[in-house]
Amino acid sequence: MFCEIVYDGRAQNAIVLDVSRTGLFVQTAARLAPGTEIDLDVRLEASAEPIRLRAAVARQKAVPAQLTGVAQGGVGLRILEAPRAYYDAIGEPAPWRLAKPRSAPEPAPSPPPAPAPRAEPRFRVRVKQSDGPRSRVLDIVAETAERACALALKQVGAGWEAIGAERA
């Protein structure tokens, strides 16, 4: 679906790749930091007027320029405000509690949580496509390197093979 991201007085055309009642993933070249609040005009039907959502960037997926032919970057967005028409259009019930309106004061920041003890080691697992040139490195928590490889293969799905794992 086509959409338009509006932030800092600018507008950027983009494509919605995934929708849910709590968020969206939007393919865009715009670099938006996590926490950035934006307006998003989404066209859920070809002839319908756009629906305006208020969202915050939950994550940024950056792709190096040399890989844009095979992978697209974008942003994961958490919905802050959406009209009932959005939920009706995607066939989902509206969440029982929406985020506070824009005019509400921000709560005082809470202190960062204490780091949790690491129960299991982390491994960097390199995988490659079985019949292709692509490879990836995944950060996996597991008790052994063999288990880390198995978990990595489960995560990437069929058509990949593990090359090796090293402790991170």
Question: What key phrases describe this protein's structure?
Answer:
single chain; 168 residues; mainly beta; Thrombin, subunit H; Ubiquitin-like (UB roll)
Main sheet attributes: strand count, strand direction, barrel closure: 6 strands, antiparallel, barrel
β-strand number: 9
Structurally, how many domains make up the residues? 2
Mean residue pLDDT? 82
Low-confidence stretches: none
Kindly provide the radius of gyration, computed on alpha-carbon positions and rounded to a whole number of angstroms: 20 Å
Could you please describe the fold and organization of this structure?
The chain has helices at 84-90, 145-156, and strands at 2-7, 10-19, 23-27, 37-42, 51-61, 74-81, 122-129, 135-141, 160-167. The protein folds into two domains: 2-90, Thrombin, subunit H; 122-167, Ubiquitin-like (UB roll), CATH 3.10.20. The protein has two helices and nine strands. The strands form two sheets. A six-stranded antiparallel beta barrel has the order 1-2-3-6-5-4. Strands 8-7-9 form a three-stranded antiparallel beta sheet, with helices on one face. By secondary structure, the chain is mainly beta. Strand 2 and strand 3 form a beta hairpin. The longest helix is centred in the last third of the chain and has 12 residues, at 145-156. The protein starts with a strand and ends with a strand. The mean pLDDT is 82.
